[in-house]
């Protein structure tokens, strides 16, 4: 790696002030699990990194009055995996963590970093989109709230300004919704996925009232599949409906070719895994 300056601010205001909106070589660093790999490979050569490790107030898990859950952006993924509060609010997060990389990475990687990095292969973005989550971002002009589904602008790109930081993630109350996340990898179970599918379904047991269907890794950005969601609404819950939604998803998903497989291969994965994820969300011991 090339030499770089490391700044370690103690407050959010100090951290934001150290970021330069016009200088791409100045970058915030949270857990650094992905960024450091890019630096070692020579893909990114920063002149300054602004560490968020010592910034106060970014590691809380707080239930909110409206039933939502606020999670500080610097909360390590392993802490989310172990949190009884997170499990009670959105157990799909707990289950997702168990197949997300390995415990060494989860001990260091943060929820805010997994979103701000903009990598479409990350597991958390599709799950949070399916749950209807938002991020709170802070910059020199103050705070703004961004739905996670609107956060990603392109491959490794987000709508965040260079001097904006994610401070928290807000997950709304889930009510009777049941959710699942499945991924397909071409190698080990903890490897980068060729496809990730997250679904959240509201059903009375016989029919589907509402649904969110999100795919990632096979596409340039995590994306909701509105045609699959429309196919599900009002339908009779069961394998026939899951297959219908899978077909609609495969027709809509803008899959890409990369080292994990061809676009055509990934489209077939979408067809199969959307149906499987819907079945998993509504099975007796799944979903909630």
What does this protein structure show overall?
- This protein is of the alpha+beta class.
- The protein has 3 domains: 5-50, Uridine Diphospho-n-acetylenolpyruvylglucosamine Reductase, domain 2; 61-171, Uridine Diphospho-n-acetylenolpyruvylglucosamine Reductase, domain 3; 178-282, Enolase-like, domain 1.
- The chain has helices at residues 12-18, 35-40, 77-82, 84-89, 91-97, 103-108, 111-116, 124-130, 226-232, 239-252, 263-282; strands spanning 5-7, 26-29, 48-51, 61-63, 69-72, 134-139, 142-147, 152-154, 157-158, 165-171, 178-185, 193-203, 208-216, 223-224.
- Helix 9 (226-232) packs antiparallel against helix 10 (239-252) and helix 10 runs antiparallel to helix 11.
- The radius of gyration is 19 Å and the shape is globular.
- The mean pLDDT is 93.
Name the shape in a single word.
Answer: globular
Strand order of the largest sheet: 4-5-10-6-7
Poorly predicted runs of 5 or more residues? none
Helix content: 25-40%
User: Biggest sheet, open or closed, and with what strands and sense?
Assistant: 5 strands, antiparallel
CATH architecture of the largest domain: 2-Layer Sandwich
- Measure the end-to-end span: 44 Å
Share in β-strands: 25-35%
Structural class: alpha+beta
Tally of helical segments: 11
Rounded to an integer, what's the Rg over CA atoms? 19 Å
Oligomer: single chain
The CATH topology of the largest domain is given as Uridine Diphospho-n-acetylenolpyruvylglucosamine Reductase, domain 3
Query: How many E-type strands?
Result: 14
Order of helices and strands: EHEHEEEHHHHHHEEEEEEEEEHHH
Mean pLDDT score, rounded? 93
Overall tally of domains: 3
CATH top-level class of the largest domain: Alpha Beta
């Amino acid at each position: 790696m090339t030499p770089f300056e490391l700044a370690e601010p103690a407050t959010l205001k100090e951290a934001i002030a150290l970021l330069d909106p016009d200088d791409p070589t100045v970058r915030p660093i949270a857990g650094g699990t992905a960024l450091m790999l890019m630096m070692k490979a020579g893909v990114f050569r920063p002149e300054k990194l602004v560490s968020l490790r010592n910034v106060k107030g970014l590691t809380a898990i707080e239930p909110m009055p409206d039933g939502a859950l606020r999670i500080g952006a610097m909360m390590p993924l392993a802490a989310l995996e172990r949190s009884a509060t997170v499990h009670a609010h959105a157990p799909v997060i707990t289950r997702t963590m168990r197949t997300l990389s390995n415990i060494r990475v989860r001990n260091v990687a943060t929820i805010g970093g997994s979103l701000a990095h903009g990598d479409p292969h990350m597991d958390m973005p599709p799950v949070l989109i399916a749950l209807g989550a938002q991020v709170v971002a802070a910059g020199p002009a103050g705070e703004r709230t961004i739905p996670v589904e609107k956060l990603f602008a392109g491959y490794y790109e987000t709508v965040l300004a260079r001097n904006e930081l994610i401070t928290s993630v807000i997950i709304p109350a889930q009510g009777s919704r049941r959710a699942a996340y499945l991924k397909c990898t071409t190698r080990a179970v903890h490897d980068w996925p060729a496809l990730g599918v997250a679904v959240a379904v509201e059903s009375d047991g016989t029919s589907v009232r509402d649904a969110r269907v999100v795919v990632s890794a096979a596409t340039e950005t995590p994306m909701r599949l509105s045609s699959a969601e429309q196919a599900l609404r009002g339908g009779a819950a069961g394998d026939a409906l899951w297959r219908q939604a899978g077909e609609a998803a495969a027709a809509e998903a803008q899959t890409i070719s990369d080292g994990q497989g061809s676009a055509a291969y990934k489209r077939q994965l979408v067809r199969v895994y959307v149906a499987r994820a819907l079945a998993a969300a509504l099975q007796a011991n799944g979903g909630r």
